[in-house]
Amino acid sequence: MKKRILAAVAIVGLNAAVAYSAPTATAGQGVLNSVHDMRVSANITDIGGNDRVCAFCHTPHHAIKPAAASSYAPLWSRMDDQQTFVAYQSATFDSTVYSTGDAAAGPTRLCMTCHDGSIALDQHYGSANTGTMLTNDNFGGPGVGVNKDLSNDHPVGFDYMAIAAGCGDSNICTTAGTATTPDQYNYIRKADQGLTYRDNPANIKVADRLYNGSIMTCATCHDVHNKKNLQGAETMNYLVLAPQKDSALCLTCHIK
Ligand code: HEC
Ligand code: HEC
Ligand code: HEC
Ligand code: HEC
Asked: Where is the signal peptide (predicted)?
């Protein structure tokens, strides 16, 4: 709610802010007319003049080559966001298996090409525009995070499989590596046993949403294309892969 009010203020008050109009696509209907259709959510049309939608993120030719060969950039049309992001830290978070050395590993870094508020939404291959920044919902703004800060967000960029294997926390796991069923030893469900998102009608597997088969990213909870997230029950569900109701998303992984 708060976000919508802020967005409404932005439409009235700030030219440079994202002018948010309500997306007409509901959950699961795809990227067209969703929040990730820039014509809808940011009120900007494709600079090529062909009324494209994918072009804001992908290009069939001349895509970027990421700085690191290991980076993920599926025909990425946008700049390579090379910022260093501050990772989540906590005494109870299993940091021994945390570090890939990059809190924004995998798709997370792609999200950040808009959501850290440093690269304009209309800046993509064929468009040098720097007109429209994402000012709310970015991960560099007040109340959300500061200076490329992911430390107050749900942890990403860590090895989910290693944590779920239960080998990291000796207080909880005494029989590491021998579990044959999910839930057996740990407080995180094992994703290599076919674990699916709760109440997701498409039975999406958590393992299929881990980068390189193991790293948790933004895409482990969200579907950027508005396609594999919950269909129907919630009109606006933040693109999450399991319902908000009864915190089904959280309980997909957390044994709580
Ligand atoms: C707002 C940005 C954005 C838009 C718009 C977008 N994509 Fe993507 N796309 C991504 C991101 C980010 C990924 C990385 C994988 C992920 O996050 O799930 C991706 C991955 C992909 C992939 C490779 C992985 C997979 O899921 O198969 C394909 C193919 C793809 N997109 C096609 C499209 C097409 C076709 C369109 C337009 C109809 C489109 N995308 C629109 C952001 C976008
Ligand atoms: C091309 C720029 C762009 C990219 C890339 C992008 N987003 Fe967004 N995203 C937006 C815009 C614009 C909005 C709508 C405006 C707003 O909410 O401030 C938005 C909104 C959202 C929302 C809010 C949805 C809602 O229901 O209100 C979520 C969640 C989200 N994005 C997640 C992601 C994730 C996860 C990725 C990467 C996998 C990603 N985005 C990549 C531009 C982008
Ligand atoms: C553990 C699951 C999870 C992960 C990982 C995750 N999100 Fe979210 N995200 C959510 C949920 C759930 C919501 C809805 C929050 C609410 O209901 O208030 C949300 C909301 C959002 C929103 C819209 C509201 C807001 O607070 O700004 C954006 C944008 C967003 N996420 C982007 C991202 C990006 C970018 C990443 C990666 C850095 C990411 N999310 C990682 C679960 C997740
Ligand atoms: C895809 C699986 C997955 C989903 C979905 C998910 N989490 Fe997590 N979450 C994890 C993993 C794995 C960790 C790291 C666990 C650890 O080492 O303590 C974690 C860490 C956390 C932590 C930090 C724990 C600490 O010790 O600091 C909290 C709190 C948390 N999650 C809450 C949530 C909530 C609330 C939701 C729903 C909005 C959610 N998670 C959704 C997998 C998930």
From this structure: 1-21
How many A from CA of 225 to the centre of ligand 1?
Answer: 6
Mean pLDDT for the chain overall = 78
How long, in residues, is the chain? 256
Three-class SS of residue 107?
Answer: helix
Instruction: Name which residue sits closest to atom 21 of ligand 3, judged by CA.
Output: 238
Ligand 2 touching residue 241 (CB < 6 A): no
Residues 6 or more apart in contact with residue 64 via CB below 8 angstroms? 73, 76, 77, 78, 79, 80, 125
pLDDT-based confidence at residue 237 (cuts at 50, 70, 90) = confident
Q: In the predicted model, is pLDDT for residue 164 greater than 60? A: yes
C-alpha to C-alpha distance for 37 and 31, rounded to whole angstroms? 6
Question: Could you tell me the distance, in angstroms and rounded to a whole number, from the CA of residue 223 to the centre of ligand 1?
Answer: 9
pLDDT beyond 70 at 6 = no
CA distances from 125 to 117, 164, 194 (A): 18, 39, 38
**Is 222 near ligand 2, meaning CB less than 6 Å away?**
yes
Report whether residue 156 contacts ligand 4, using a CB cutoff of 6 Å. no
Cα 204 from Cα 194, distance rounded (Å): 9
- Distances in Å between the alpha carbon of 47 and those of 56, 60, 123, 234? 9, 16, 9, 33
Name the β-bridge partners of 58. Answer: 76
From the CB of 23, is ligand 2 less than 6 Å away? no
Q: Render the burial of 238-249: b for 16+ CB within 10 Å, e for the rest.
A: ebbbbbeeeebb
Q: CA 207, 66, 73 angle in degrees (round to 5)?
A: 40
Q: What is the pTM of this model?
A: 0.91
For residues 92 and 122, what is the distance between their CA atoms, to the nearest angstrom? 40
